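Section 5.1 Outputs to date
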Amino acid sequence: MQYCYYKAHLKTESRFQKKQKELLQKFLRVIPNALIIVGATAVMTVFYPMISYQLNASRWNNKKIVAPLTKNELAIDKNLAYQNQNKAEATDPVMAYQQENAPQIVDFDYTKASNWFSNPEKENKTEKKELVSTYTLSIPKLDIENMKVLINGENLDESLIQYAGTALPGEYGNPVIFGHSVLPVFYNPKNYMSVFSKIPTLKEGDEIFVSFDGIEYKYEVESYHEVEPDEIEVLEQRYDRKTLTLITCVPPGTYLRRGVVLAKLVQD
């Protein structure tokens, strides 16, 4: 029996196929490193703003004002004040009426603008408020320019909101303005949903300009502190000086606390 053998042809790869194979191998080697970088970037995007915020907030926390009275003395004085007020209400019909018609503080979710403004229909009807319901606010350091502030407003995605019943800009008292915040990476000074994201970074002496009823008022940052959502004492009015308060949620991108910037009027 005869056998025949045929020489097999070797399969050879073209230069193009070799190049494609090399590129695929390189791509597969790069993928793990790329995923690590993307993951690390995502983590830093979330946590770095919080860490940076805490470091910045500690700068203000070191400047605590020493109270002339201890907490126990303050508690005693507060109880005495309540007792005196109750006695006065019993004999003074005017104070009794004011107490009866005062806004009631309830446990609301203060992350919603509507809950920061109790009894909006009971707006103080001064002549000036009827004429002027909006004004503008600018903070050069944060590139905030002529952002609208609506007095006794509701929608924080359409404007900044001034708490109803607080003083007007330039007057004795404390206008309180509330605005939204997000993670700093999404900060846009022209977007009302993020406009107050960086106000915790303001330093003492930074300028805030308010244009109200044709007059521009200049304020300078005086202090920064934080409060819990139910600590609405920051809305109180003191008529021995002219101040301005800006409030937003902190840390940026969360609703855990309220960051409060206090500024004083230096020019009108």
